[in-house]
Amino acid sequence: MNRKCVFAGTFDPPTIGHQRVIRDCLKIFDEAVVAVMVNTDKTPLFTEEERKNLLCKLFRDDKRVKVIVFKGAVVDLLEQENTPFYVRGIRNTVDFEYENANFFANKKLKKDIVTVYLPAEQDSLHISSTLVKNSVKFKKQYADYVPDEILPDIIKLLEEKDVR
């Protein structure tokens, strides 16, 4: 039996924390569907396609990772991917409270959902896409927060957007 999970987020941009969660997914599951979610309430720094391309590059050597763009509810994504397994990365109690509230809402919509919480490593508890975006905005160092494999791509995209 092929065990597949979904790990969804905005990934704006992908961080080393995201990379770790995806790698941990592959220790548990045979396949990880990484979904770049379209969130109209957010103003992203990078387009959905740019974020998808960054994630694809990051995992280009692992055929067990499928990266998609998805607009809609997570429960619909799980149905589309034919899996009940939904992975969430947790950095702190704030993340846990938020994710737990979403779990109960999702459970009402999809009874068979199985949410798996993966805790962040201690050295990356502070890392978030928001931290990276704020570091860019205020011209502070952010290289330690994004995977080395895609850092040059992020720098190039920021230069093209005239954001440095």
SSE order, one letter for each helix or strand? EHEHEHEHEHH
The Rg value, from CA coordinates, equals 16 Å
Task: Tell me how many strands there are.
Answer: 5
Give the strand line-up of the largest sheet: 3-2-1-4-5
| Helix fraction bin | 40-55%
Distance between the first and last residues' Cα: 47 Å
Name the poorly predicted regions: none
Oligomeric nature of the chains: single chain
In terms of structural class, how would the helical and strand content be classed? alpha/beta
How much strand content do the residues show? 15-25%
**Biggest β-sheet description:** 5 strands, parallel
Report the principal-axis shape: globular
Average of per-residue pLDDT values: 96
| Total of DSSP H or I helical runs spanning 4+ residues | 6
Question: What is shown here, in short?
Answer:
This protein has 164 residues and is an alpha/beta fold. The protein has helices spanning 16-28, 48-58, 74-81, 93-109, 129-137, 151-160; strands at 4-9, 31-37, 65-70, 85-90, 114-119. It is 41% helix and 19% strand.
